[in-house]
Amino acid sequence: MIELFAIRSGTMYELVTESVTLRGQRYQAPRSIQATIVTKQGSQKYYSIKEGDTVLFKWKGKELFRGTVFARTPKDEKLTFTAYDMLQYLVKNQDVYVFANKRADQIMKRLGQDFQIPMTSIANTGHVIKSLVFKNDTSLYDIILQALRETKKQTGRNYQIYSAKGKMGLRAWPDPSEVWVIESGVNLIDYQYSTSIEETATRVKMRATHVEKIKVLKKEKKKSKTTDKDIEKDKKTTKPTKPTKPTKPKKPKMVTQKKEIEMLAVANDSAARRKYGILQHVERVSGEINQAQLQKRADVRLSQKKGVKKELKSIQALGIPGLQSGMPVRIIIPDIGIKKTYWIDQDSHEFKGTKHTMTIDVVEKNSIPTGNQS
């Protein structure tokens, strides 16, 4: 049921395909395919592929991928190639930019125009960002992602950069009313599950230095001591002078000094401490912060690091073509007490003949990662 085509000058050439693997990862820009095709069988030669070609992949008549060939490896009358969708051009291109009073969608359109990347529907993100400066060369993808982070802070809304039919777009993050289910005994094939307290903390200590400005008296410079010889010398060389009026005492001068005050905030998980002992996590916080803010940070960090950490990954199941990274999925595995909805962090779909299986990793929250992702 695999249909794989090369597109050149508007003409489609069908490729003799052995297997296709379609991959993607949340907040990692392009989706990709790795396909193995047959280029020769005895004296019979088949259509091949080269770098820069556009490829189109369909499964059961539905388009799942369209992108550009970036790499290929020929071997034994076969050829394996890798192609990426249009978001690859956001990762590969870097530049410096200064934006003022622009929305994230306007920034994305500007980048698409500057680098001649075809675009489809770009959703209006609403929030106007006063200033966004990139002094160092930054990938176009990270520029857009930073604009979306600023938008999320102000509006609470998530947006997804995507590629469809050879064009990049921007849409509100999909939140379907109906969610696909992977369940043991139904469509689940295999999985990996583990629990651990290796990264758990039962006590968190946060340290910070608070700089306080205080005013103190300026110290006067001490006068040097006068010796008997100096007095005799002054008597001989100094001429008698008229008596002068007594001078008024000078007002004491005040100067501002910085005083460093060490602060400490502690958060405890008493129940876990009785069970697992003291597992202390220590952090030093930089920047201006007061005691209440420091305590809040300690409480938040404890909430992130408390309890047994559970990891569910490498979930292998019968293939669902529309299920990809960034989408919600409900997973039911009674043997380990799992019955909840996750977000797909990364997906890998394998197609061979009429068979389609997939392997996914999941996360509990669909939060935007910090830092550059390219």
Write structural notes for this entry.
With 374 residues, this protein is of the alpha+beta class. The chain has 4 domains: 2-84, Phage tail proteins - horseshoe like beta roll fold (Roll); 89-172, Baseplate protein-like domains (Phage tail protein beta-alpha-beta fold); 180-197 and 308-363, Bacteriophage T4, Gp27, baseplate hub, domain 3 (Elongation Factor Tu (Ef-tu), domain 3); 199-217 and 253-307. It is built from 6 helices and 23 strands. The protein has helices at 88-92, 104-114, 140-155, 228-237, 270-276, 291-305; strands at 2-8, 11-14, 17-25, 32-38, 40-41, 44-45, 54-59, 62-75, 78-84, 94-103, 119-122, 128-139, 159-164, 167-172, 180-183, 188-196, 203-217, 254-268, 280-285, 309-318, 328-333, 338-352, 355-363. The strands form 5 sheets. Strands 1, 2, 3, 4, 7, 8, 9, 15, 16, 20, 21, 22 and 23 form a 13-stranded mixed sheet that branches. Strands 11-14-13 form a 3-stranded mixed sheet, with helices on one face. The protein has a 3-stranded mixed sheet with strand order 18-17-19. Helix 2 runs antiparallel to helix 3. The radius of gyration is 34 Å and the shape is elongated. It starts with a strand and ends in an 11-residue tail after the last strand. The mean pLDDT is 90.
